[in-house]
Design brief:
heterodimer; A: 6-stranded mixed sheet; 19 helices; B: 480 residues; alpha/beta; Aldehyde Dehydrogenase, Chain A, domain 1; Aldehyde Dehydrogenase, Chain A, domain 2; 3 domains; 7-stranded mixed sheet; 6-stranded mixed sheet; globular; NAD (chain B); Ald_DH_C (chain B); aldehyde dehydrogenase (NAD+) activity (chain B)
Chain lengths: 531, 480
């Protein structure tokens, strides 16, 4: 086949094409093993195993989702709760398989896989089970006296059949976290995992149907062609997590049926590193920067720290501490996830090929094209601001440090660039914190830590501007996949004659007062007592 | 002096970047300006509405001016509260930390308005955009030219014209505006143009609110106060711009047994409202223009429906007037039942049992509003559960849009997003999550090199086990 655009592809502005022959050796070996295993797998029919689902199969399965939703099956709270419990059982029973899939796809250590994906999902599903009654309950709202007798409510209802496009870097988390919200809201769901994380995609396809209601939740595997086919259909909502270039394609396709979309994109998340007081706090800050850059999927995360801004005079201290702490934390390559595939490896090594960029490498920089684990944690100092590494989202283990004269200059630096998903700052200064919140715009702001805001489900998670729109996590997941229906009930008891034609000045005057909820004036006018 | 469009957008961008639209005082001053305009320029506004639509003065006041004024007052009253950051509980597992949600303006907002309520649908979204601290460009509909030029002339006199601009024009100008980069687009109109707006929005990944329409059904049960029901249906249909309103009742569904009674009641009410010759009544808006008149004439004259007229049918092409016209049992595949009518034509469809109306409504696209007249609360509950619509109203029509505590917007083909009251403020804001962590309680368990003891503690923390959280905070496991 030709070289189609990768819909669930990499974060990055360059046109990158996908073709099955470009698999690296490691990945090809893995896919052999998985194919052998799946020969003996249960339940699924031949056309639905492993690689892309055939077009007719996709159509049939979508039809089933729509029929299931129309039947009302997904509406009762009891059904939704049983699905959430099913998900929790899946995560508990199949934890080892999940760790294995994440290790196959990304080389994630099980601690990272638990901390960032399995554990977070368990927390989220439990929270949804606890809160679902509250979220789904109609909310009474105030009605003005003029409408008496009347009652008004906002009633949440499911949108219908929703589509979730997941991404390869947190292939379990970015699939199941939105799924939790979609199910809690009472929808039927199609989940399209990224084909660039095939072991996890297979894990999902094999287990979702086992633990959840297979007529209402379906995993549809495949590459860009399947993605395009899916977008030909009418959905009641589409959530896309990925890069801006493909997001445009998805949003343009959504126009056909006026499908509402939510986009979770990325950006270059800056970390403003102020001179933090005290050795202990400074060390803690450096720990957290390393955690947010290298310990989260080797920097391949939408909320990873992309680059650091620090005052000139403080840069040497920061760099020294980064180097020494890195040595302790990431002593060998299996403490860090690997680069997902050969194409991304190439992209990252190209970032370093620029001579001016290569010259700015202070630490690391080593890589071996035959080994996807071999990109060392790399620190650069002041690469040119117009180089690719400073204009594209890095999504890898390379950390540019940009120096500024005064730390406050960072604010203008960040403002001059597209709005990122997160802004981070390590600082003791309350005025600096206030300025950062007020003068920069981003999906979120976190002080003195990074990435952890992801696990706080009382905070909405999502972007703004180029980093996307729509928010989820916690109750926001529920709302993302719901329609808030306004319902007003009136009675026949009281009838305001002044509403109806034929019109006259007195009726107009009375209505003016009513609309201002000025009941005293209304009564006067009604009784014919003018001012 | 009319500045060029590109220069206008550039100024909006510069002013927003300079922070001019952020302070609460500025926002309140603009809202007061709009309020003053709606108060001092009533006569001019009513004249423009009459010129564009033949809108009766009462409708101009009740449906447009009053609503704008109460919208301003509501926003002014609540502005400080809406702007305040909202603290949220930060989880124990992130101890110590605090978290809040801070609303911030999106930036540059484009509001594209419609012709049928040209004041309301222009200024109501603008009010929300201003309250949220944005810079705004308003493109009034060229279908209501008198109001468009009135807004272009008046608004700069009452508000800060450097940050709130009216840009007039037709398809060409609107297309050019859509090609600029906006931080939010708010469109009110039909789904065909809605698709054009969404396509343009996709280029810059701009979020959009689309307030579209649909065929708003009215189901009438026999268990009602018939006279009141007929009045409320008539007021919602012909008292709202003569049916040219997105939430006007589009068609009625009732039982075969009840239809004759309903029809009689409607006829009586219509004669009371508009007299024996409705084309002479000053209380009926005219059809907006010749093109729409032709469209409605086509719907009325279609062969399979023209013999189903049971009331009305009079028309005056010179005056662009069509009398309230009722049809009985038109075929479902007639044009009048396939597209949004947006005019004074009201089909009544009959079914055997009232529950059959549910299936009929669900076979169509989701409407902006669905109405049911019945005293039977069981039927009401069933309707609420079975029918999806932007909004729903029992025993009345249209008035739910005046309640600022109810979100107003569509679902499915009738649109996406909502506004009114605080929902307007939210539509034009970004809810920024802000988390503030302390340095104490450094959890070694989160960092590599990873180990089984660390994993055990992480599990406990994520499962909310207090013992593990304490260990994490105290820096266990010791050593690495």
């Amino acid at each position: 086949m030709g070289a189609p655009v990768a819909i669930n592809g990499p974060i990055g502005e360059r046109a990158i094409t996908c073709s099955h022959s470009q698999w690296s050796t490691g990945a090809a070996e893995q896919s052999e093993r998985v194919r052998a295993e799946s020969m003996g797998s249960m339940v699924a029919s031949v056309e639905e195993i492993g690689a892309a689902a055939a077009p007719q199969a996709v159509e049939r399965r979508l039809g089933e989702l729509r029929a299931t939703f129309e039947s009302g099956r997904t509406r009762p709270l009891s059904w939704r709760q049983s699905q959430l419990r099913g998900l929790l059982r899946l995560l508990a029973d199949k934890e080892e398989e999940a760790f294995r899939a994440l290790h196959d796809d990304l080389g994630k250590h099980r601690a990272e896989a638990y901390r960032d994906e399995v554990g977070v999902l368990t927390k989220s599903a439990n929270a949804a089970l606890r809160e679902i009654g509250k979220w789904a309950a109609p909310e009474k709202v105030w009605v003005p006296l003029v409408a008496f007798p009347a009652s008004a409510q906002v009633v949440p209802e499911p949108l219908g059949v929703v589509l979730i496009f997941s991404c390869w870097n947190f292939p379990l988390g970015l699939s199941l976290e939105p799924l939790i919200g979609a199910i809690a809201a009472g929808n039927a769901v199609a989940l399209k995992p990224s084909e660039l994380a095939p072991a996890t995609a297979r894990f999902l396809e094999e287990n979702i149907g086992e633990y959840l209601d297979a007529t209402a939740v379906k995993v549809i595997q495949g590459g860009p062609a399947v993605g395009e086919q899916l977008m030909e259909h009418r959905w009641d909502k589409v959530l896309f997590t990925g890069c801006p270039r493909v997001a445009r394609v998805v949003m343009a396709a959504a126009v056909k049926h006026l499908t509402p979309v939510a986009l979770e994109l990325g950006g270059k998340c800056p970390c403003i590193f102020d001179a933090v007081a005290g050795r202990r706090n400074l060390q803690t800050s450096v720990n957290r920067v390393i955690f947010a850059k290298w310990s989260s999927c080797a920097g391949q995360a939408c909320i990873a720290i992309d680059y650091v801004l620090v005052e000139e005079r403080f840069a040497p201290t920061l760099i020294k501490l980064l180097k020494s702490t890195l040595k302790r934390f990431i002593a060998d390559s299996d403490q860090m996830a690997r680069i997902v595939n050969g194409r991304h490896f190439q992209r990252l090594s190209n970032l370093l090929k620029d001579p001016a960029v290569a010259a700015s490498i202070l630490h690391g920089g080593g890589l071996d094209a035959k080994n996807l684990r071999s990109i060392e944690p790399t620190i650069l100092l002041n690469p040119p601001l117009d180089s690719a590494i400073m204009t594209e989202e890095i999504f890898g283990p390379l950390l540019p440090i940009i120096t500024v004269k005064k730390i406050e200059d960072s604010i203008a630096f960040v403002r001059a660039r597209p709005k990122p998903l997160a802004v981070y700052a390590f600082t003791d200064s309350a005025p600096l914190k206030r300025r950062i919140v007020e003068e920069t715009s981003s999906g979120s702001v976190t002080f003195n830590d990074a990435v952890v805001q992801f696990g706080v489900d009382t905070l909405p998670f999502g972007g703004v501007g180029q980093s996307g729109f729509g928010q989820y996590h916690g109750k926001y997941s529920f709302e993302m996949f719901s329609h808030k229906k306004a319902v007003l009930r009136r009675g026949f008891l009281v009838e305001a004659m002044l509403r109806y034609p034929p019109w006259d000045e007195q009726k107009i005057a009375m209505m003016r007062h009513l609309f201002r909820y000025d009941y005293v004036r209304f009564i006067f006018t009604f009784l014919g007592l003018r001012r | 002096m009319v500045e060029s469009r590109a220069a206008a957008v550039q100024e909006l961008r510069a002013r927003f970047a300079a922070g001019q639209t952020r302070p609460a005082e500025w926002r309140a001053a603009q809202l007061r300006g709009v309020l003053r305009m709606a108060t001092e320029m009533e006569a001019e506004i009513c004249d423009a509405l009459h010129a564009d639509l033949g809108k009766p003065k009462t409708e101009a006041h009740v449906h447009e001016l009053s609503l704008i004024k109460s919208s301003c007052l509501f926003a002014l009253k609540n502005l400080k509260k809406w702007m305040k950051p909202q603290k949220v509980p930060a989880k124990l597992m992130n101890f110590p930390s605090t978290a809040r949600i801070t609303p911030e303006p999106l930036g540059l907002v484009l509001v594209i308005s419609a012709w049928n309520y040209p004041l309301l649908l222009s200024l109501d979204p603008v009010i929300g955009a201003i309250a949220a601290g944005n810079a705004v460009a308003l493109k009034p509909s060229e279908g209501a030219p008198a109001m468009s030029s009135l807004l272009a002339e008046l608004l700069p006199r009452f508000v800060d014209g450097t940050c709130i601009k009216v840009i007039e024009g037709g398809v060409k100008e609107t297309t050019a505006l859509l090609n600029q980069k906006w931080d939010k687009i708010f469109y009110t109109g039909n789904s065909r143009v809605g698709r054009v707006v969404m396509t343009a929005a996709a280029k810059h990944l701009t979020p959009a609110v689309l307030e579209l329409g649909g065929k708003c059904p009215v189901v009438v049960d026999s268990n009602v106060d018939l006279h009141i029901a007929a009045k409320r249906i008539a007021a919602g249909k012909w008292g709202c711009n003569n049916g040219q309103a997105c939430i006007a009742p589009d068609f009625i569904i009732t039982t075969q047994a009840f239809a004759p009674k309903l029809l009689e009641s409607l006829k009586k009410v219509l004669e009371k409202f508009y007299g024996k010759d409705p084309l002479l009544s000053a209380d009926l808006s005219r059809v907006v223009n010749a093109s729409h008149f032709g469209r409605l004439k086509g719907l009325m004259d279609e062969e399979m429906v023209s013999d189903k007229i049971v009331f009305g049918g009079q028309r005056d092409e010179q005056q662009l007037k069509i009398a309230p016209t009722i049809f009985l049992d038109v075929p479902l595949d007639s044009a009048i039942m396939k597209e949004e009518i947006f005019g004074p034509l009201l089909p009544i469809l009959t079914v055997d049992k009232i529950h059959e109306s549910f299936g009929l409504i669900n076979s169509m696209a989701k409407p902006l509003a669905a109405y049911l007249f019945t005293r039977d609360s069981e039927l009401q509950n069933q309707f609420e559960g079975a029918i999806s619509a932007g909004g729903m109203l029992f025993n009345d029509t249209s008035i739910h849009l005046t309640n600022p505590y109810l979100p107003f917007g569509g679902v499915g083909e009738s649109g996406t997003g909502a506004y009114h009251g605080k929902f307007s403020f939210d539509a034009f804001s970004h809810r920024k999550a802000v988390m503030n962590r302390g340095f104490a309680g450094e959890a070694r368990a989160r960092y590599p090199p990873y180990s089984a003891p660390k994993l055990k503690i992480l599990k406990g923390v994520l499962e909310g086990k207090l013992g593990d959280m304490i260990q994490a905070i105290l820096g266990f496991p010791r050593g690495k």
